[in-house]
Design a protein that fits this description.
alpha/beta, Rossmann fold, OB fold (Dihydrolipoamide Acetyltransferase, E2P), eight-stranded mixed sheet, seven-stranded mixed sheet, S-adenosyl-L-methionine
Amino acid sequence: MTSSYQQQLNDKVERISAQFNEFNPPELEVFESPASGYRMRAEFRIWHTENDMFYAMFERNDDQQKQVVRVDTFDIADQSINDLMPVLLDALKTTPQLSNRLFEADFLATLSGDMLVTLIYHRKLDEEWEAHARALAERLNIKIYGRSRGQKVILTDDYVVEKLTVNGQQYAYKQIESSFTQPNAIVCQHMLEWACNAVQPTTRDLLELYCGNGNFTLPLSTRFNRVLATELAKSSVYAAQWNIEKNAVNNIQVARLSAEEFTEAFNGDREFRRLQEAEIDISAYDFETVFVDPPRAGIDAETLKLLQRFEKIIYISCNPDTLYDNLKTLTQTHKIVKFALFDQFPFTHHVESGVLLEKI
């Protein structure tokens, strides 16, 4: 496993180095993942037969038709998920009130030991289901969350609290069920440390676009005087604000704006009541650095123009192809001074990248 992991990682390094060679970046920093047991999320269909039920996934055969694949263990998932899978399944099998028309089981684990299991059904969940689910959650010391069409049953919480360590300091993060979180917690810690170490502490301010639940926001706040973070999704904004308060951080404001909306506000093209209600004055900030972690589609043209006005840009990318396209614009005004590869998903084509750019 170790030798095959190193080979696949070397292949990624060669591919990314060749793809970005035209930008003349510095030597690529490479951050490895455990070869197995690295994934903190797992989603399985529950497959019912006449006399049995089991976890299942699907794969396509040579005719591109879906085939059911039974899953008894899931090597890429965290050990806590693998330990829970058979115990939970046995309990479900022996409890008709929990197994009846059960469609899917999703696991959300943490390094901190918190575990949430979402059970999804093709039927309405009643008080009997709730009583049995609550008893099972207490027996297994996990959180259980029930869902069906138009119905959500939260027994205790619909989230876990993860604890990540960055440069010796621990941060607590609320991670809400079905909201985006980094699936590889070990590599996530590498990413957070790399981003923090990419810049020296300064008395100036940071702008962050696409902040999510504040994953990068919290540790980055230690390097800057103040941070203005933007995010559009309400659930992520709520989680970010919870995380800021939980970690007793007092130099972060969160604005519920998309990157495009922030660009309009920053340029004075449009006023937003959401900024006024949150008592956020963009003009009061002394921005030096901007941090972006955009979706796979990358950054739109107007936001790229905005980034070019900052002295430093920290760009975390989940798609090398859109990063490559965006760098064609950004390297017209900036040069790459740090370049990193994070192996978030071993044995797949997927690559996470980090780039620090400074104004020429």
